[in-house]
Amino acid sequence: MKTIVITGAASGMGLCATKKFLSQNWNVVMADFDSKNGQVKADSLSKEFTNSKVVFKQTDVSDAESVQNLAAFSHKIFDKIDAIINNAGIFVSGALHEIPENSWDKIMNVDVKSIYLMTKSFVPDMIKNKSGVIINTASVSGLLGDYNMAAYSAAKGAVTNLVKSMALDYGKYGIRVNNVAPGPTNTPMFQKNPQETIDKFIAASPINKIVEPEDIAATMYFLVSDDARSITGQNIPVTAGFGI
Ligand code: NAI
């Protein structure tokens, strides 16, 4: 039985991905800063999916010690970690000069540095095992410009390019690395937008919709699965046609 570690698993896409992998009989380590929500969700999912194991670990993905603890916890429970999804992320809005310095630092730490920390903690074992799959959640904002998205675009732009270096450096160890780049997706993060903004995003889609988190989870599952064995170093947009 295979095991995956998913960050940002208490909500939105991470929670949907957790359900998708459990439904395919994977073990899942759910990692999230939000311990209350994360533990409640893990308890309920472990009752729903009895063929595999789901556990929760409170983690701040921007903190080195916290991420090391997540890796130690995961390796203690499961012999081998087959895949990780670096999905936890935050959004900060504003034109560049309006963004407070601590918000700039925070988004860079949560959305970008977290991938460095997760890699340092999980990839050495994947290298030893000569196998592994890594997925990062990037964003269409890493590909396009948009109003009031300077810090977020910069952070996700870094993730968009990082996938190539990771795929090049780790390919020789049998490790594949890909990004999913969601467009506007119906999660608690997106639902914070005013209805007027949501309507604008729907109108900007040629199929007149926003993305559902289940669509992202399905793409993540495909990219982790052996069906994607020839795909690495790619940034896969799942956007309902937004921004084409
Ligand atoms: P969400 O807000 O529903 O879920 C994000 C989860 O990450 C939350 O459970 C939160 O507690 C957790 N988290 C935040 N900071 C953390 C930290 N320091 N350590 C550990 N966990 C932390 O958001 P959603 O929409 O599911 O976002 C998932 C990913 O998708 C993020 O990377 C986001 O930037 C990205 N994304 C979202 C889009 C959208 O329209 N919803 C569009 C493009 C990308």
UniProtKB/TrEMBL annotation:
CDD domains per record: SDR_c
GO molecular function, one term: oxidoreductase activity
Annotated GO biological process: bile acid metabolic process
Domain of life: Bacteria
Pfam families assigned: adh_short_C2
Family according to the record: Belongs to the short-chain dehydrogenases/reductases (SDR) family.
Protein's name in the database: Short-chain dehydrogenase
